[in-house]
Amino acid sequence: MSPELISILVLAVVFVIATTRSVNMGALAFAAAFAVGTLVADLDADGIFAGFPGDLFVVLVGVTYLFAIARSNGTTDWLVHASVRLVRGRVALIPWVMFALTGALTAIGAVSPAAVAIVAPIALSFAARYRISPLLMGAMVVHGAQGGGFSPISIYGSIVNGIVEREKLPGNEVTLFLASLIVNLVIAAVVFVACGGLRLWRQGSVTKGEADAPKGRGAAIDVRLPPRGLDQPQRSDTGTTTAPGTHASPTTTTTVTRDTTPTPTAPLPLTPPRIATLLSLIALVVAVLVFDLDAGLTAITLAVVLSTVWPDDSRKAVGEIAWPTVLLICGVLTYVGVLDEMGTITWAGEGVGGIGVPLLAAVLLCYIGAIVSAFASSVGIMGALIPLAVPFLAQGEIGAVGMVAALAVSATVVDVSPFSTNGALVLAAAPDVDRERFFRQLMVYGGIVVGVVPAVVWLVMVVPGWG
After folding, report:
1. How far are the Cα atoms of 76, 272, 386, 400 from residue 406, in angstroms, in the given order?
2. Is the dihedral of CA 128, 134, 99, 121 positive or negative?
3. Sign of the C-alpha dihedral, residues 336, 341, 344, 347?
4. CA triple 146-175-348, angle to 5 deg
5. For residues 415 and 376, is the Cβ–Cβ distance under 8 A?
6. Which of 216, 220, 248, 452 has its C-alpha lying 20 to 30 A from 163's C-alpha?
7. What pLDDT is stored for residue 270 in this prediction?
8. Mapping DSSP to helix (H, G, I), strand (E, B) and coil, where does residue 90 land?
């Protein structure tokens, strides 16, 4: 059995054990990286740690640290209320606002993980407050980032167009951008419907009291009470009971106030810690987008400054960093790095590229791009797979523009996977969730995307022979 095949089988075993025994998959992956790297690939410790995602580790820690402080001092609540007021209380519009915001950030030049790191904590805080599916909100943020990710001035777009030019392939920047935007927009619409978005539309607008009340305070909401049977006692809002044999109107509308705390009518106040935190978030955006600074290091620096000035608000923030998620993601990506070091990914790609049927090779390359990118760098896999497609693109049987667009979309749309940078950021940023359950939801959703999207984009973009 070849070393490459052994490494793939070990990865499958890691998934099975983590799923059936509830062991942190990252810890298992570190052990697998040590065993396979040492016994199969003949790597030393430096070779094994070459795949450790140090930059992602810092981003996960820094961003979750900063937003833990923001949650502690009420800044995220203030942002949520501001978002509600911006769309006039229409909760159903907020996921689309987040989709558009991350799309705009990547389209003008933000790296996709940086845009997600900025938007996801705010979006998921909103989801937690208004009982929106975290999977829906996380998917809208990630797909928004990828929807704008291939504009001619974006990072992804510039890289792919540069590879196309270097390989002397026909290219079309606008087609590449629109292909990614349309695919992610369609997927976002499907997820919106599947995860309860229509229910949010039927819910209408939140009341002013609910929009402005701090989390945990009373909020006025309309509750529809269904008809009761004739022989069932009915309790009124004042605590009295209606005798059997009498009944109320078929549908009774009442206003219920949660808890006993009065509902404020004024927006949350901007206290000095909240103002400083908002300025820190703005500074994070400017540092990443304008000065091209590292998002993780910048976030940690800002968090440390806030912690020093207001230690009471941030005392528990370090404990709220998503350490299990950090272990999981870093462990899996370290093992994927071992696969890359020993040539497993190149081995699989070259095996597909040698197939004599161009259309079959094309769809297999799309699937390889999707599967590998779900665990590794999207840019890296695009840089590896596009050159592998050159030999059969030169035959003229497949359009180069469609093939490049299909590869680009397949390799990036799967970033909802919890093992990718974007998916990991969404998982880490979600407050007040069962993290293991949310991880499984992201993994299942990522698996569906990996299984369906490459075939669809191949059928739509490659088979007709675009370009």
Report:
1. 38, 49, 10, 10
2. positive
3. positive
4. 65
5. no
6. 452
7. 84
8. strand
Cα 66 vs. chain centroid, distance in angstroms? 18
Least confident piece of the model among 51-60, 121-130, 265-274: 265-274
Residue type, 290: V
Instruction: State how far Cα 328 lies from the chain centre.
Output: 16
Would you say 7 and 342 are in contact if contact means Cβ atoms under 8 Å apart?
yes
Structural contact between residues 416 and 435, judged by C-beta atoms closer than 8 angstroms: no
The Cα–Cα gap between 198 and 455 comes to 28
Amino acid at 316: K
- Helix pair 112-129, 75-86: axis angle to 10 deg: 90
**CA atoms of 414 and 74, how far apart (whole Å):** 33
Radius of gyration of the chain (CA): 25
Residues 6+ away with beta carbon under 8 Å from 76: 67, 70, 121, 122, 125
Tokens 């081995």: give the residue: 347
Measured CA to CA, the distance from residue 189 to residue 105 in angstroms comes to 20
pLDDT of residue 193: 93
Q: Reduce the DSSP state of residue 241 to 3 states and report it.
A: strand
Which helix (H) or strand (E) segment holds residue 222: the answer is strand 220-225
Q: Rounded to an integer, what is the distance from CA 339 to the centroid of its chain?
A: 24
Would you list the DSSP string of 155-167? HHHHHHHHHHHHT
Of all helices (H) and strands (E), which one includes residue 235? strand 234-235
Place of tokens 């390799």: 411
Asked if residues 412 and 180 have their Cβ atoms less than 8 Å apart, the reply is: yes
Are 451 and 372 in contact by the 8 Å Cβ rule? The answer is: no
pTM of the model: 0.68
Pairing of β 241-242 and β 252-257: unpaired
What mean pLDDT comes out for the span 415-432?
87
Torsion of CA 162, 168, 174, 175, to 10 degrees: -120
Dihedral of CA atoms 360, 361, 364, 366 in degrees, nearest 10, equals: -110
Task: Name residues whose C-beta falls within 8 Å of residue 351's C-beta, 6 or more positions apart in sequence.
Answer: none
Q: Is the pLDDT of residue 79 over 90?
A: no
